[in-house]
Design a protein that fits this description.
five-stranded mixed sheet, alpha+beta, 4 domains, 13 helices
């Protein structure tokens, strides 16, 4: 008991955005100290020893490893799908945040999607404790994103946040430190990548990997195609007909078509949130607008598309990828507010 108390005093509090695609760690007093892919690679040498790569080093191996190495993505749709690997990954990131000091038991705030079940929530808590945390607070991603975007979450007015991550899109309306409405759908960045991968396979008989699909999405993908926009990109892959490497050229019009259904689903989910919230709160949003965060907010023209469809102001904050972890980090400075948010 004494050792746990002493370890907690020697540790710096952390906020963690445990994402399907990337994990970010905010250290109190230092800011964001970890921003790595949520990927782990393991080579089993024998029953007692193994070689492990985590984060960016592991992501480089996807699709390029021999049979002796297995690559894991321990989160799916925003929740833990492999407890052991997730604990290993979290332990690595916590140690990295504390510059690999072994004797640390920090207080940790960790974010989860709004739609997680009690069992999934408990899995996140247990994995974080198993990774070395001394105390764990679990907050909804949407609330953390709203704080990170600078929204007045403690005021009696509604704020609408749309956090588009890798595995889930969170749509929430927040007022007085509580989530008035929230919905989480499993259509987000990873689904857009799969759409592109399938489109290229079907229309060009070309096999590409998820990393290539993601690159295509951000370089030429559009949620809404304006008249003067039709960029092109050369794409390398394996020809499915003869199995040899091949290069094709693909443009924005094609990629916009490929991801259209998924983008429509995200926009429809935003509309549904507005239709279901109380009239007073909906009226506030006409003035305050909608804030887009997460990696999906970087999809070009998504803000224009939402504004066109719904008719209210749409804002994308600076560096939307870090909004959730920065918001969770702000809670580290106000434990009373954190407890109030956790109890709402």
């Amino acid at each position: 008991m004494f050792f746990n108390f002493l370890a907690s005093k020697l540790s710096k509090d952390l906020a963690i955005d445990l994402g399907t695609a990337n994990t970010l760690v905010y250290c109190k007093g230092s800011g964001i100290v970890v921003d790595e892919p949520s990927v782990v690679a393991i080579r089993k040498r024998d029953k007692r020893s193994s070689e492990v790569w985590v984060g960016a080093d592991a992501k480089k191996m996807i699709g390029r490893v021999p049979e002796s190495i297995e690559v894991y993505k321990p989160l799916k749709d925003g929740v833990i799908s492999n407890f052991e690997i997730a604990s290993l990954m979290l332990k690595f990131f916590i140690n990295k945040a504390h510059k690999r000091k072994a004797f640390v038991r920090p207080r940790v705030i960790i974010s989860v999607p709004s739609g997680v079940t009690p069992v999934e929530r408990r899995a996140v808590r247990d994995a974080t404790l198993n990774a070395g945390a001394g105390e764990v607070f679990i907050v909804e991603e949407a609330m953390a994103a709203a704080m990170g975007a600078g929204l007045p979450v403690t005021e009696p007015m509604s704020n609408m946040i749309v956090d588009i991550g890798g595995g889930t899109t969170e749509v929430a309306i927040i007022s007085l430190t509580g989530v008035v409405y929230s919905n989480s759908i499993k259509v987000a960045g990873d689904k857009l990548d799969i759409d592109i991968l399938n489109f290229v396979r079907k229309n060009y008989s070309l096999a590409i990997g998820p990393s290539t699909a993601e690159q295509i999405k951000f370089l030429v993908g559009r949620a809404y195609l304006e008249d003067d926009e039709d960029d092109e990109i050369d794409v390398k892959g394996r020809d499915l007909m003869d199995g040899i490497p091949k290069t094709i050229t693909i443009n924005s019009s094609e990629i916009t078509l490929a991801i259209m259904d998924s983008v429509n689903t995200i926009v429809d989910n935003i509309k549904s949130a507005l239709e279901q919230c109380p009239p007073e709160l909906a009226a506030d949003i006409i003035d305050t607008g909608i804030v887009l965060t997460g990696g999906g907010a970087l999809l070009k023209n998504l803000d224009l598309r939402v504004r066109q469809e719904i008719g209210v102001p749409v804002v994308v904050p600076d560096n939307p990828l870090t909004t959730v972890v920065r918001g969770a980090g702000m809670m580290l400075d106000d434990i009373a507010l954190l407890r109030e948010i956790c109890n709402n």
